[in-house]
Structure formats: structure tokens, C-alpha cells
């Protein structure tokens, strides 16, 4: 999404991003930062998340303010901030809990490469096809 963090303002917007994500191993995840502006640990991780979005500009980075989006928080059974969830095809594939920049960095790095070809998602040979070959018709 161009190296930016997208603030999720509604459950409808959340659903759009979850529906757009593809579950194939060749496609990157949607990475979501569940933050609370009243939480010191969340504030500590804010710049780390922004930096990761800039570094991995081909990945989608979302931010959910927990006090404003309790429906999304409850749907994902969250009870702690900061929490970082990784989604593919609308399903959770990984989680990082707490203010641990190195762990978040490692997890983003691991998900930034195609699991089949071990190349960055942007240069994966399957991505040359305009639509996912497994989920026909669903564009990347």
C-alpha cells in the first residue's frame, strides 16, 4: 500500500481489507497493529510500525485504535495491546503480542517473502499473473 499505515475507521473498512487479502503462500499478508493511544507500550511501537510500513512498502499495514473499534477487537479476541496480527484470506496466520520491536521485525521479514520461491512477494514469478492462479479471479 505504498509504505503507509492505513487507519481503520469502521468495521466495513476492516471487512474490505480482509476480503481483498488472498490466502495463497505467494501473496503477502495484511499486517494489523491493534493499538491503544493510552497505552505506553502501543505508543512505543508506533514508530517501529511506521518504519516497517515504509521498509516493506509492498505489504499492507493497517492500524486499529482499540477504544474506537471494539467490534473488530472483540471479533479477534484481543485482550492486550499492542497486538500485531497477520492475516491471509481473512484468516489469522501469525501474531506478535507486546512491545518487542525485534520480534515484530523478524515476523514481518518472514512474511515478506514468498514461501514457495523464497523471493520477495513483489518478485515472485506467480505474481506476474494478474489474478491468483489458485483463487481464480481474485486479483493481487
TrEMBL record:
Matches recorded under InterPro entries: Thioredoxin-like_sf, Thioredoxin_domain, Thioredoxin_H-type-like
Domain of life where this protein originates: Eukaryota
Pfam families documented for this protein: Thioredoxin
Protein name: Thioredoxin H-type 2
Gene3D superfamilies reported in the protein's UniProt record: Glutaredoxin
Domain named Thioredoxin: residues: 8-109
SUPFAM superfamilies attached to this UniProt entry: Thioredoxin-like
Amino acid at each position: 500500500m505504498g509504505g503507509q499505515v492505513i487507519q481503520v475507521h469502521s468495521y466495513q473498512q476492516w471487512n474490505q481489507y480482509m476480503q481483498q487479502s488472498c490466502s495463497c503462500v505467494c501473496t503477502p499478508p495484511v499486517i494489523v497493529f491493534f493499538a491503544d493511544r493510552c497505552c505506553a507500550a502501543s505508543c512505543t511501537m508506533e514508530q517501529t510500525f511506521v518504519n516497517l510500513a515504509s521498509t516493506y512498502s509492498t505489504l499492507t499495514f493497517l492500524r486499529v485504535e482499540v477504544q474506537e473499534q471494539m467490534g473488530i477487537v472483540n471479533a479477534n479476541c484481543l485482550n492486550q495491546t499492542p497486538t500485531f496480527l497477520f492475516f491471509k484470506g481473512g484468516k489469522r496466520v501469525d501474531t506478535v503480542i507486546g512491545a518487542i520491536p525485534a520480534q515484530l521485525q523478524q515476523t514481518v521479514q518472514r512474511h515478506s517473502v514468498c514461501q514457495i520461491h523464497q523471493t520477495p512477494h513483489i518478485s515472485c514469478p506467480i505474481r506476474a499473473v494478474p489474478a491468483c492462479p489458485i483463487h481464480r479471479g481474485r486479483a493481487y
